[in-house]
Write a structure and sequence with these properties.
- By secondary structure, this protein is an alpha+beta fold.
- The strands form two sheets. It has a seven-stranded mixed beta sheet with strand order 1-2-3-7-6-5-4, with helices on both faces. Strands 11-10-9-8-12 form a five-stranded antiparallel beta sheet.
- It has helices spanning 19-28, 77-95, 172-191, 195-205; strands at 9-16, 35-42, 60-67, 99-102, 106-109, 112-124, 127-138, 213-218, 221-230, 236-240, 246-248, 252-254.
- Helix 2 (77-95) packs across helix 3 (172-191) and helix 2 (77-95) crosses helix 4.
- The structure holds biotinyl-5-AMP (BT5).
Amino acid sequence: MAWMETRFRILRLDEVDSTNSYARRLAEGGAPDGTVVVARKQTSGKGRLGRQWHSSGDFGLWFSVLLRPEFDPRFAGMLGISAGVAVAQAARSIAGVDAVLKWPNDVLIEGRKVCGILAEGCTAGRRLEWAVVGIGINVTLPGGGFPPELEDVATALSQHCACGAEGSALDKDILLDAVLGEFGARYAMLHEGGTRLVRDEAAGLMECFLGRRVTIRGEFGVLQARALDLLEDGALLVKPDGGEMMQITAADVSIGTCARERGEEDA
Ligand code: BT5
C-alpha cells in the first residue's frame, strides 16, 4: 500500500527556547506525525553535540518537524539527509541559488553554511517512536551581521539570489511551504522503499564532497581520509590514510573548497 503523504500541521510561535526542544515536548505529549513548530526567534537554538545555533533574531526560518516514521529505524539517518536534500532543492527553486550538501546534512552555498539540520529521535524497541528534524535556514543577514566567529563560515540566501540586498523578495512562508513539500515527498519515498533514490539524490548534491580528501572529527579522534560514498542508511563510507575503510554515522567533516570548482584535482 502506498504511504499516505504526511499532512503538515503548522504551529507558529513568536519566541521559543528551541523549536526542537518544543517539538520534543509535543512528541512526548503524543502530538501526531507532521506537526511543525516554527518560531521567529530562538533564545537557545541548538546545533549538534551541544553546540549553539545562532537564531536569536528574525533573520531566518527556524523550524522543527515532528515525525512518527513507520520504516525500519536502520534508515533513521536518512531523515536528516532528506531534510538537507529538501532545503537544497527548495533553495534552488525559490531563490535560484547553487546550494549543495556536505555530509551529514549541512547546506552550503559557495562553501559557506546557509542551513544546519539537527535530527533527534527516540526508539521504542525496534521502532522509531518519534523523530524531530530541526531546520535552520539563514534567509537574510542578522542585523549588524554574523558574530565574528561565524563571519567566515556562515551565509544567508539573500547574499546569493536576485532578491534584493535585504532579501525583501524572499518570502519565508513560501520557502517553508517549498521545504515541507520537498521533504514530504522524500519522507514518503523512505516509507515506500525508495531509500536508494533519496540516497542517489543526496549523493548528487554532495558531488563536490564525495571522492575528496577530508578531515573527520568524531569520538574516535581526528582522521585524514578520503570520503568514498554515501550509504543507503545515511552513513558515510571513508578510507582513512593508511587504514581500512570504515562507516561513519556521526562526526564533523571538513573539506577545502571544491577542487573541481578551482579546476584542479586533489592528491
Ligand atoms: C547544526 O549543528 O548545524 C544544526 C543546526 C540546527 C538548527 C535548527 S534551527 C531550528 C531547530 N531548533 C533548534 O534548536 N535547532 C534546529 P552543527 O552541525 O553542530 O553546527 C553548529 C555550528 O554551526 C556552530 O558551532 C557554528 O559554528 C555554526 N553556526 C551557528 N549558528 C549558525 C548560523 N545561524 N548559520 C551558520 N552557521 C551557524
